[in-house]
């Protein structure tokens, strides 16, 4: 039996397909939407369709943007000779928020994951190597510190090394403010291996 | 500085205004939407606008429905002489899922909350008393067991008592499967007071 009228259960169904939204929160959000002023609900609906319709990949770095070339790639203040490779646009934004990185990015939009059948051709690797044919000094690999992220980093490193371009990997270790006793063993080992002389 | 293009940050802003969605989950949901097939994104958007446009209050019980009179109020299998008073449509659905209640409902769409300036005239109480002028045997008060829910229950009880209509309140006590040591003192006291002879 349907407990809610069709529109409400459609809405709950759509919402519960979103990541991190279970059936209870989908119900809560649905009732929040039903109690919104009509213009607020329609601005939410149009934000969804607008974003999906107009946002595309930057033709250079493949971040999500509303322009052909994203503001970072088209800025002449950024050093185009240094490319940071990240998994997705959120990672790019995380580094942009730091505000200290002056190079450009390359967004893979995924990582290699043989278990799920995602190979080197399914992420933006070919496009990265095309960019490296230009004038590039350094590639900084900033994929996540997960199995897939590390495997992708190793794969990229192996292919770039022979070209003579400098390749680096962001440091792995104890996060600032982190409490040693709460940190996993692999991270502790990495932090030890990556120690710096003072 | 804007880290995301306008459409993306609009979408993140709209999503993070939803209940239970913080800024990190809003980003995650936004990128999920950006990576959805276009027709899935537009069906999500239209579910939101459809629900908000077409769902209204039932003219009898004030539940949210797409018809003038909801299926429960218009069903001739339900006992119209027993009215269960609930706070919102979700509470009605919770009891409908149990499937044992054969009466009808009255949805207050809120509770009295003097601290927030919500008085008896701001919830559907007048409409409840209008219904009681008809042929009603019993009013079951099933507002939540919160301070506001209890206060609303007491207020309704006080007004109905003189009319001679039977008023009851759903039982308060230890939930089935509940572990005594994890249950708060007020609930334990209620369970003791409401004990039944076996």
Describe what is shown at a glance:
Two copies of one chain form a homodimer. Chain A has 198 residues and is α/β, with parallel strands linked by helices.
Structure, described:
The structure is a homodimer of 198-residue chains. The first copy, chain A, is of the alpha/beta class. Chain A has 2 domains: 6-54, RecR Domain 1 (Helicase, Ruva Protein, domain 3), CATH 1.10.8.420; 64-197, Dna Topoisomerase Vi A Subunit, Chain: A, domain 2. Chain A has 8 helices and 6 strands. The first copy, chain A, has helices spanning 6-16, 23-34, 38-54, 71-74, 89-98, 125-132, 147-160, 185-193; strands spanning 56-57, 64-65, 79-86, 103-107, 138-141, 166-169. Chain A has a 4-stranded parallel β-sheet with strand order 4-3-5-6. In chain A, helix 5 links the parallel strand 3 and strand 4. In chain A, helix 1 packs across helix 2 (23-34). Chain A is globular, with a radius of gyration of 22 Å. The mean pLDDT of chain A is 90. Chains A and B meet through helix 1, helix 2, helix 3, strand 2 and helix 5 of A and helix 1, helix 2, helix 3, strand 2 and helix 5 of B.
So what's the oligomer here?
homodimer
Helix content of chain A: 40-55%
Name the chain pair whose interface involves the most residues. Answer: A-B, 53 and 53 residues
Overall domain count of chain A: 2
Q: How many β-strand stretches of chain A?
A: 6
CATH topology of the largest domain in chain A: Dna Topoisomerase Vi A Subunit, Chain: A, domain 2
Cα separation of the termini of chain A: 69 Å
Measured on Cα atoms, how large is the radius of gyration of chain A? Answer: 22 Å
Helix run count of chain A: 8
Q: Report the portion of residues of chain A in β strands.
A: 5-15%
Topology pattern of chain A, helix = H, strand = E: HHHEEHEHEHEHEH
* Level-2 CATH architecture of the largest domain in chain A: 3-Layer(aba) Sandwich
CATH class categorisation of the largest domain in chain A? Alpha Beta
What does the overall shape of chain A look like? globular
Please summarize the sheet with the most strands of chain A: 4 strands, parallel
Query: In terms of structural class, how would the helical and strand content of chain A be classed?
Result: alpha/beta
Give start-end ranges of low-pLDDT stretches of chain A. none
Kindly report the spatial arrangement of strands forming the biggest sheet of chain A: 4-3-5-6
Q: How much is the average pLDDT of chain A?
A: 90
């Amino acid at each position: 039996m349907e407990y809610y009228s069709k529109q409400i259960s459609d809405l709950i169904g759509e919402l519960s397909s979103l990541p991190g939204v279970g059936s209870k929160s989908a119900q809560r959000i649905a009732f929040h939407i039903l109690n919104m002023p009509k213009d607020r609900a329609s601005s939410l609906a149009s934000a969804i369709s607008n974003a999906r319709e107009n946002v595309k990949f930057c033709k250079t770095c493949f971040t999500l943007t509303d322009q052909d070339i994203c503001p970072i790639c088209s800025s002449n203040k950024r050093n185009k000779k240094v490319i940071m490779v990240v998994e997705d646009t959120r990672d790019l934004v995380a580094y942009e928020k730091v505000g200290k990185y002056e190079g450009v990015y390359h967004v893979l939009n995924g990582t290699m994951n043989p278990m799920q059948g995602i190979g080197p051709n399914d992420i933006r690797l070919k496009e990265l190597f095309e960019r490296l044919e230009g004038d590039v000094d350094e590639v900084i690999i900033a994929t996540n510190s997960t199995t897939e992220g590390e495997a992708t980093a190793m794969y990229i490193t192996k292919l770039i090394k022979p070209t003579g371009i400098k390749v680096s990997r962001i440091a792995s270790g104890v996060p600032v403010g982190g409490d040693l006793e709460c940190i996993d063993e692999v991270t502790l080992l990495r932090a030890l291996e990556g120690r710096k002389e003072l």
